[in-house]
Every structure is written in C-alpha cells, then in structure tokens.
Design a protein that fits this description.
The protein is of the alpha/beta class. The chain folds into 2 domains: about 5-150, Response regulator (Rossmann fold), CATH 3.40.50; about 160-255, Arc Repressor Mutant, subunit A, CATH 1.10.10. Helix content is about 45%, strand content about 20%. The chain has a 5-stranded parallel β-sheet with strand order 2-1-3-4-5, sandwiched between helices. A 4-stranded antiparallel β-sheet has the order 6-7-8-9, with no helix packed on it. It has a 3-stranded antiparallel β-sheet with strand order 10-12-11. The termini are far apart.
Length: about 260
Amino acid sequence: MYVFLSSHDLEVFPFIQVKSFIFALMNQKHVLIVEDEENLLKIIKLNLELEGYSVTPAITGIEALKEFRKNNFDLILLDVMLPEMNGFDVCEEIRKENKEVPILFLTAKGSGEDRVQGLKLGADDYLTKPFNLEELLLRIQILLKRSNNNKPTSSTPNSFKFGNNEINFITYEIKDVNGDKSQISKREIALLKLLIERKGEVISREEILDKVWGTDVYPSSRTIDNYILAFRKYFEKNQREPEHFHSIRGVGYKFTE
C-alpha cells in the first residue's frame, strides 16, 4: 500500500497527525484471506479494512501459497473447501515454511474430525460457517495478541539448554533427557517459553490460560497438568521427583534449572 502526501497535505495536517498516520501504517497488521465464495470474501475484506487491517485476498489454494510466499502476513484466514488445492493441504505447506503465523480456518465443515485434522496440521483456531462477524473479529484480535506474546524477546534465546535437555523455540525441536530428538507442538513450545522466561517464579493457571491458550478457548482443568506431565516425561530423570517442572497445588506452575 502506497500513500503520497503533497505539500498541501502537509500544510493541512499538523506534523503530529502526519507522524501518527505514518506510525499507524507501519504497525498495520496484514491479513491473508483465502475464500472462494466471492460475496463472503468481499464482506470479510471490507470489515477487516474498516477495522484498520491491510488485507490480501486469494480465491484458490495455489493463489494463496503464491501470495504467502511473496508477502509477510500477520494472520491467515483459510477456507477448507478450495479449488485446485484444499485448505488442509495449504495449511500443511505453510507450516513447512512458517510455524509462527496464526492460521484460522473458516469452513462449512464443522465435524469433530475436520477440526482435529486442521489443528493437527498446525491451525490455531477453527470457525464454522455461518459465523458471527463480531466473533470473527474478536478471534482475530486474540490470535494476534497471542502471536505477539509468543514472539521471542531479547531475553528469550532461540534455544535453551538445561541438564542434558535442549529446546529450540524456532524449530520446535527438543532433545530429551535420554538424548533423543523429537518435534513438539506449537502450544507446548509456547508454554515452555513462558515457564522458562519466568524461571523460579510460580505462574498462575489463569495467566497461563490467557497467554498460551487465549481467552477464547479454555481447556479442561486437567489440560495444563497433562502438559506438565508430558514435560516431565521429556525432561526429568525421575518423573515422580521432578527437578525442573513443578505443580504448586492451588497456586500454579514453576520451572527451575
């Protein structure tokens, strides 16, 4: 998107307004919409633009991959039933090249099997048609917030070693206590990163839900416990007497080296 300001524009707009306008453009989120229903595509595109997003549309799966490879997107809205290449295959190809960009499926296929397949391929959320536009906008906001929270900070290295274990936050690859290498899920990496960034500190269940799962999806009361149990299986010499991953009853969870 190119914006040209004439000398007249600069006279009309005070400097602070021009500066704020340029800042807003630089921080504008770029969304790729992949949808073959043209009317729905136009409606979503219009409403996202009204909310301040920059939007690139695509109608086919092949077109979506072309756009993805020549642009940087902050979020992808992806239909499942697409011509040339279905949304599941598009998602799988995107995840081979980029594990970070949030992907939200928009689809008429609302069965549990389809939802599980999409999430297994690396999608972050799933919204069944017909949907409420306000809910879509809210889910987009939440995914972008979560994505921003999960980006590495200056205090978070690309990888982290403790004992015989190693975690790569970029490739999602771990080396476990036995020296075996494997790849874990995006959500496991997000939870590990949060715990390690705050090592020695007890983090409440509520904060973990907000930063890792997002406020739109609440797992069962046992879900975080199951993740901690999985981490102990990966990284602890003695799972019954953990050195690194601790559950503090009634309070939260803690990582120690």
